[in-house]
Amino acid sequence: MKKTFFSLMTTASIALVMTACGSGKTAEATKDTVATETTADTTAPAAPATVVAIAVGSPDHSTLVAAVTAAGLVETLSGAGPFTVFAPTNAAFAALPAGTVDNLLKPENKADLTGILTYHVVAGALKAADLTDGQKLKTVNGAELTVSIKDGKVMIDGANVTAADLTAGNGVVHVLDAVVMPKK
Gene3D superfamilies attached here (predicted)? Predict the structure, then answer.
């Protein structure tokens, strides 16, 4: 009985988190998947398989998905990980200077796009509670992100974390309201 109640509460929590990220359709699919999987094994709810699956399931991250695909990073970010991904929203990409995204998506700019995207990825699964003010995070591209925490709000290189701790089987995703750029 306790396991069933826990499974139902966990399913509801996942649905709420996914809905809060603008992904109501995915929340229903996730809820159905979790309900099906908890019937077979009531010890733990199912998380999306990969950090890529979280982005794919969110209509607010279609630009990020297109960029990850153009950079050839889908397979890498679908690997075992674990990864921490700081995922800019479509609005974050739209706030870049006009033409920036279109230019980065061109095949001849794949290296630049890959550098920017890998600046949003850290090895390991870091939850919000693992982050501290002033902390430096080494990114997959070799540069460092800086964590700022003020009045309980977490920022990464000046971008606000608007949703935290979206857990996948191979890591965790934190949603950002801006695209952070590597320092040159």
Answer: FAS1 domain (2.30.180.10)
